[in-house]
Amino acid sequence: KKFEIKTASAKKEQLEATIGKSSGDAQASSVKIEELAASIASGEADLKAATTVRGKEAQDFATSESELVEVIDTLGRAITVIEREMAKNPAAFAQVDTSSLHGLLDSLGAVVDAAALSSADKQ
């Protein structure tokens, strides 16, 4: 009978140690869960902010793109008109001071380059 009591006491101590370890593990897990929940909340806030910024940038891009497409269309029509008029009366355009025309073309090229359009769009 003494042996059974001694064995039961040892088993009790072993179980109490297991309970203590499990309680510590549970507390550590609770802390880890809180840290992960805070990290998730922070990540969600960052995602929301990035989504807002991306939406604004996309809207700005769409506005700029539509303006540039309109300018390119206008320039294309102007080139067509100039070419048609040059075909009708080439001598009239020969009298035009071309130094300012080169400056205009350089300026337009700079605008198109600044808009970061592809070479296909520049044409």
From TrEMBL:
Organism: Pyrodinium bahamense
Protein name, entry field: Uncharacterized protein
Lineage: superkingdom: Eukaryota
